[in-house]
Amino acid sequence: MARVFITGSSDGLGRMAAQLLVEQGHGVVLHARDAQRAQEAMAAVPGAETVVIGDLSSIAQTRTVADQVNRLGSFDAVIHNAGVGYREPKRIATEDGLPQLFAVNTLAPYILTALIQKPKRLVYLSSGLHRSGDASLKDLAWENREWQGQPAYSDTKLHDALLAFAVARLWPRVLSNALEPGWVATKMGGPGAPDDLDAAHRTQVWLAASDDPAAKVTGEYFYHMQLRAPSPAARSFELQERLLEECKRFTGVELPLS
Ligand SMILES: NC(=O)c1ccc[n+]([C@@H]2O[C@H](COP(=O)([O-])OP(=O)(O)OC[C@H]3O[C@@H](n4cnc5c(N)ncnc54)[C@H](OP(=O)(O)O)[C@@H]3O)[C@@H](O)[C@H]2O)c1
């Protein structure tokens, strides 16, 4: 049985994935932004081992999440699931002066990947919208452009795929994959979302814990437990390296190169 840490497991697909992993007999550590949400997360996933707390929009708090996880020992898998959606009407600045969307969706998975003791498997939640992400990687902090929520979200989901594939290349002993869950009716997806909610959380669970040889691959992109072609930009070594450089510059955290 696997031991899995899931970010953003107080709601939506993270919580559903946690519930399914517990049902399958795996060990699960939850994550929530604050003590209130942590209590709610534990109530919703009663079989979970524990919950770690930290607001992923803050670089300092994200570092403490990594510390809390490392104090709990080693994990078989980490699922980078937490995310902010595409409806932010303006550039919401974090305590670090960065757009919240970029901090939570791009920098937090980078920091946690770099600082959590390496698991056997890493899973990154991207989105079909990553295909319209800006592959120039210019102005990542939205200082010189007028804010647009959906493009800003799409950019971060391209970053998540770039990060997954960079890690797959740099850390050959770790299985690192990305996926799109489909547009589904969570808090983020909204009530009218058309895809199958019951299928949406299964791919992350399968990639994290299944013994199916099809799930034990690395550097791949999935939709509903099937391989799907990501944007060619996500495969660019040069873009992957540039994203890692930018993440290091914004956070002061270095990704171990092996
Ligand atoms: N739903 C879709 O249609 C869809 C489509 C493509 C990709 N995705 C991706 O799937 C992942 C999960 O999305 P979802 O639909 O399950 O979204 P959701 O229902 O809105 O849940 C997001 C989770 O992330 C947590 N979170 C957000 N900001 C946080 C912060 N600053 N600090 C700590 N935790 C934070 C939320 O905590 P709170 O509950 O406290 O807010 C919640 O647990 C995301 O990465 C998303 O981009 C979703």
What is the secondary structure topology, with strand pairs?
Blueprint (H helix, E strand, L loop, with lengths): L2 E4 L5 H12 L3 E6 L2 H10 L5 E4 L5 H13 L5 E4 L19 H16 L5 E5 L23 H22 L4 E6 L16 H4 L1 H8 L11 E3 L2 E2 L9 H15 L7
Parallel strand pairs: 1-2, 1-4, 2-3, 4-5, 5-6, 6-7
Antiparallel strand pairs: 7-8
Helix pairs in contact: 1-7, 3-4, 4-5, 4-8, 5-8
The structure holds NADP nicotinamide-adenine-dinucleotide phosphate.
What labels describe this entry?
258 residues, alpha/beta, 8-stranded mixed β-sheet, 8 helices, 8 strands, 39% helix, 13% strand, globular, binds NADP nicotinamide-adenine-dinucleotide phosphate
Name the poorly predicted regions.
Answer: none
Proportion of strand residues: 5-15%
| Largest β-sheet summary | 8 strands, mixed
Query: What's the helix count?
Result: 8
- Label the structural class: alpha/beta
Shape: globular
Please give the share of residues in helix.
25-40%
Number of strands: 8
Rg over alpha carbons: 16 Å
Amino-to-carboxy terminus distance: 26 Å
Order of helices and strands: EHEHEHEHEHEHHEEH
What is the subunit organization of this protein?
Answer: single chain
Major sheet: arrangement of strands: 3-2-1-4-5-6-7-8
Unique bound compounds: NADP nicotinamide-adenine-dinucleotide phosphate
What is the typical, i.e. mean, pLDDT?
98
